[in-house]
Write a structure and sequence with these properties.
The structure holds 2 protein chains of 2 kinds.
Chain A lengths: L2 E4 L4 H5 L2 H14 L4 E4 L13 E5 L2 E5 L7 H6 L11 E4 L4 H4 L17 H6 L4 H7 L3 H11 L11 H10 L6 E6 L8 H8 L1 H15 L3 E6 L4 H16 L15 E6 L9 H8 L23 E5 H13 L1 H5 L2 E2 L2 E2 L1 E8 L5 E6 L4 H8 L9 E6 L6 E3 L9 H6 L8 E6 L4 H15 L5 H19 L3 H18 L3 H5 L1 H10 L11
Parallel strand pairs in A: 1-2, 6-7, 6-9, 7-8, 12-16
Antiparallel strand pairs in A: 1-3, 3-4, 4-5, 10-11, 12-13, 14-15, 14-16
Helix pairs in contact in A: 6-10, 6-13, 7-8, 7-10, 9-10, 9-11, 10-13, 17-18, 17-21, 18-19, 19-21
Chain B lengths: L1 H11 L6 H12 L6 H8 L4 H10 L11 E6 L2 H4 L3 H12 L5 E2 L5 E6 L11 E3 L2 E3 L4 H10 L5
Parallel strand pairs in B: 1-3
Antiparallel strand pairs in B: 1-4, 2-3, 4-5
Helix pairs in contact in B: 1-2, 3-4
Classes of the chains: A alpha/beta, B alpha+beta.
Chain lengths: 514, 152
């Protein structure tokens, strides 16, 4: 029997040389006359070990990493195909503590299967959720999602089932299911990893959503910065169509659901749901005034589900294992699991899917291993560029929507970016407003003008011009933006600024710079 | 150009909400969206020129002038900043002798900022055309540019 070797085709793995490693393995095997099957999986999310090469022996997988092209001949010499000893040997992948201690529900297949192989998907529980859904009434499907406690994983944390119920209860000849895959927050890559590593889970989730509310057309709004995800999704959609899981007769049910990928064009604001709908309609990504809610009047004026990738990709397991199974993970009103993404200055960056309730400290040190630079972690930004900076004194806070909002932070899409003690927090506050100025859609004044004026005010503070007065002005401006902006971009860009004023004020008071 | 444009419009004119699809297709085919294409697209999609121009100029991805043979995008978002992205960005500008949003005189590279490539566990990240790179040091960036004819 030929040996089976896995080399990820995930963009993060490719970005550090996985393609060259795969080619070197194929070359070396050929020159040694070894019959070997090279499979391309997603990433396990242990990004610091990428490229992580895995060998399948029986039903077990053994790992080596991070592997470079130059290591390949040595791996063969060490008989890695039979888990031979080598400096890069990791042992059973499932036993690596970083991985073993996770609760992989949404990401159960990511890194394990071949992403666009329908057979692999079916062998690992794929489409069992849909099969169950097809035996249920629409209300029952919505009820299951509601009871699971699933809340929007894109950042807003709105209960998914309630959104679905609104769409179900709205009568219309045409409804839509849209997936917001415009993952623009720095420090986040869970959507990308899922779409590249298990795209069929997203497709199945969207199909279930469509059945639940009576939609026949779906769109995945994908950011242009994710070409690898586009290829994976396109291949997976094709597989699903050819096997009858998409199209006029979904899994023999007589129900239609069509799905296509639409590309964004590099605008952060299109991650805001109404702006995303404008963009899908081919217009400038300017936010809409709510109400009406997209669930009532969304895409092309029709009732529309807008859910994030992770929310939708969590639906199949909820329908497969039951609402109770999913709800039993987590704490308080934060039910289920959350894929936390460890990024920035962190030794072991990657994705950790855990039930809500795990502490920041555990994530940063037990999983993350502290900073990559070896210096103390001074601050972490949670939830992307609109999220607060959290100081070390608050690292015992749990990953829990309510606990985080209790300290003035937000979980957002679950990205955690670590900074060591060389960071200049006043510069980071300035960047938050600079970013808002670059990405503002321009529709409302507090965001469009406030962000630019905010950068200028911070510059005056840094230059040492009337510091007290300008610090007061900055606080005032933050309040205006928070209270007066139409959407979360202008409304939340002050959050990181305020957190710096609160926890790292000394960085505004350093000797003036020019 | 006219024939290529008309093929693209034929393909998308009946699709709901087609303008972004059309602009993407034009840019894929021609490398940018020429000013002369705007009135034609507007007419075929029954939009005003202002509407087409408004969309074209709203999105960072769309180019209204040709790019260099390669587009280097350097991530300047927080995660990459935490790992030295600003230093890398300065290095890229010095090495290429241009600022962001500019193209080298030999036409080899355009340099663009990008705010997150989704490779945040392997910061700092850059993308060259559609190829993503992580844990990029200034030396490695030099090597990547040299491989692509960046020697000046």
């Amino acid at each position: 029997m030929s040996a089976i070797v896995y080399v990820p085709r995930d963009a993060a793995a490719l970005s550090v040389g996985a393609e060259r490693v795969a080619a070197a393995i194929a070359r070396e095997a050929a020159s040694r006359g070894i019959d070997l099957t090279l499979k391309r999986n997603g990433t396990r999310g242990m990004c610091w070990l990428e490229p992580l090469v895995e060998i399948a022996i029986g039903s077990e997988r053994y790992g080596y990493g991070p592997v470079t092209e130059r290591d390949v001949a040595g791996l063969f010499a060490a008989d890695f195909l039979h888990n031979g000893a080598h400096a890069l040997q990791l042992g059973r992948v499932d036993d690596i503590p970083y991985f073993a201690s996770q609760q992989r529900l949404t990401f159960e297949r990511v890194g394990v299967t071949e992403p666009t192989s329908l057979n692999d998907y079916l062998r690992h529980g794929g489409y069992e959720g849909l099969r169950n859904a097809l035996r249920m009434q629409q209300q029952e499907i919505v009820q299951a999602v509601t009871e699971s406690g699933l809340r929007g994983r894109g950042g807003a944390a709105f209960p998914t089932g309630i959104k679905w119920k609104t769409v179900l209860d709205t009568s219309s000849p045409q409804k839509y299911v849209t997936c917001n895959a415009d993952e623009g927050d720095s420090g986040t890559f869970a959507d990308r990893m899922l779409m590249e590593g298990d795209p069929l889970a997203l497709i199945e989730g969207m199909t279930i959503a469509a059945l639940a509310v009576g939609a026949t057309q779906g769109y995945i709004y994908l950011r242009i910065e994710y070409p690898h995800a586009e290829r994976a999704l396109t291949e997976a959609i094709r597989s699903a169509y050819s096997a009858g899981y998409l199209g006029p007769d979904v899994a023999g049910s007589g129900r239609r659901f069509d799905l296509e990928v639409r590309l964004g064009a590099g605008a952060y604001i299109c991650g805001e749901e109404t702006s995303m709908l404008e963009s899908l309609e081919g217009r400038r990504g300017e936010v809409r005034v709510r109400p009406p809610l997209p669930a009532i009047k969304g895409l092309f004026g029709r009732p529309t589900i807008v859910n994030n990738v992770i929310s939708l990709a969590s639906v199949p397991i909820i329908l497969r294992r039951g609402a109770e199974f999913y709800r039993d993970f987590g704490v308080g009103r934060s039910r289920g699991t959350m894929p936390i993404q460890l990024a920035g200055n962190i030794k072991r960056g990657g994705l950790v899917e855990r039930a809500f309730g795990v502490s920041l400290r555990e994530l940063l040190y037990d999983y993350g291993g502290g900073s990559a630079s070896g210096r103390p972690i001074r601050a972490v930004q949670i939830g992307g560029p609109l999220g607060a900076y959290v100081p070390e004194s608050q690292f015992d806070t749990a990953i829990d929507y309510e606990a985080l909002s209790g300290i003035g932070a937000l979980l957002g899409h679950g990205g955690i970016v670590a900074f060591d003690d060389t960071v200049d927090m006043a510069r980071m506050a300035r960047f938050a407003l600079e970013f808002c100025a670059i990405e503002s859609c321009g529709k409302c004044t507090p965001c469009r003008i406030g962000s630019t004026r905010g950068v200028e005010v911070i510059d005056r503070i840094l230059y040492g011009v009337d510091r007290d007065g300008n610090l007061r002005l900055l606080e005032d401006l933050c309040e205006t933006m928070v209270e007066g902006s139409l959407c979360g971009l202008g409304g939340m860009a002050p959050f990181p600024v305020r957190s710096v004023l609160r926890h790292f004020r000394e960085d505004f008071l350093k000797p003036p710079t020019r | 150009m006219t024939e290529e444009l008309s093929d693209i419009l034929d393909e998308y004119v009946h699709v709901p909400g087609p303008l972004l699809l059309v602009l993407h297709a034009v840019q894929r085919r021609l490398g940018f969206v020429p000013e002369e294409a705007v009135p034609y697209i507007a007419e075929r999609l029954n939009l005003s020129r202002a509407e087409v121009h408004g969309v074209l100029s709203f999105y960072h991805h769309f180019r209204r002038a040709p790019s260099g043979r390669h587009v280097l995008q350097v991530c300047r978002a927080e995660s990459c900043q935490a790992m030295g992205a600003e230093h890398l960005a300065q290095h890229a500008q010095q090495r290429l002798g241009i600022q962001f949003h500019e193209t080298t005189v030999d036409g080899a590279f355009s340099l663009e900022p990008v705010y997150c490539l989704g490779n945040c566990a392997c910061s700092p990240a850059v993308m060259i055309d559609e190829e993503l790179f992580g844990r990029v040091s200034p030396e490695q960036l030099d090597a990547l540019l040299a491989e692509r004819g960046g020697e000046r």
